[in-house]
């Protein structure tokens, strides 16, 4: 019985020790249910240091902070306890149930993954009315507004949507990006180009504010009834004043991230009236002029002229069809060339559209271009208007006369039919001399390729033996393989950093990984030993001058700070070039 007791105790102790030695890599969230206006903290925690940490893409969230790294290392009764955590702070983009996918990390040459975590995002929740809370201050002092020029337009009548961001005088915005763009379904839309952003003074709900115009869009509704204009949403970095002051008495500011939305708007589109609608109406709405012009009215047969059908003015110029020309069959007419000279501003489309017809008369005579009419709906009077071009006579002075009856209403005739004479050399283009040449067949047997294919495998055997021996030696070099792998990863992440230029988070994560793997390859140290003092001392021992070491450490510092401060594309490009040149300099100087 005692023996069984001792064996059981041994097995329990062994299992406990084995469990304590297991590597753990877990994902933890601050809460599994939160409002769309709340923030979520996600921790990726491990009990042993690793390399090449890759977070999930957080596709349904906006990363507003992180990654923050914390390391805990302690000894209790001679037992080491280690913990390392990567923390992210996320803002939900919309309501629903979403999964935070797996993160990965390499520990002792093995890849570990976290479990998938599901969180539920509900509608906005009420928060305590704390006037000193920075987020509440930002809510009260930042407003995104969509100003609509008209909420009950006619079908195909132009309306404008101007998006303005209002900011109170004691608050600032240091950075913003669009996270949800309106799609303008059931509208023809065009954004108006804006050159720069200008800060202006104005009022919002009777109070003084500053504002900037972020976007101007012209819309032409294509359906009647109630239509929704989807909201524009922005992610902002807001500078909010605090109760703390500097040594000169000035109020200190703090940064908070905030998502603002212009909200959805509904307009009611009226149908065009049926009363008085002309039969030739094709949907033109606005104020227009109409005309038909020809490049000449007197010419000879087989010469060409241009007939131009043109509509000009202000309205939905790109959204209706021009009337077609109807011409006698004795006039050869080519497909028209359509041209548009249209500018779009806050007043809608302005300019002209035209169809140009190329006409070639075949016979002598006088040919009329019949009267053509064009109708449009006039928004000023609320009625339909019709304009006519008038008849234009084309006088063909010289050429054969047409004796058919099909065009008697259009021109005088009197010519006799001419007999068609076939040419005697109409098949002269067929070649009768083939110029054939005789070729000898070639055989594979006993050819050069035959002997090469026969002896090549025999010659490859000694090469394969040498290659296998070299590979075995290389696989046995554990330390060398580790260095080569780190060097390869450094080049890989430096390349990824270059591809991610313009994406702040991805760029600086890749750049930091490239620098760390470069140090591991050159200095033979682990990630846990990458302190700035240790890096400096090791590089100086390797013969690198102090200015290059300081430059390298400054780049590492930039990678840490850049995640929490606004960074421009130019600054990212400078950091990348500085990192590449510094690595090159250190390579040349290192013993």
From TrEMBL:
Pfam families linked: BatD
Top-level lineage group: Bacteria
Regions that span the bilayer: 448-467
Signal peptide interval: 1-21
Record keywords, A-Z: Membrane, Signal, Transmembrane, Transmembrane helix
Protein name, entry field: Protein BatD
Organism the protein comes from: Aquaticitalea lipolytica
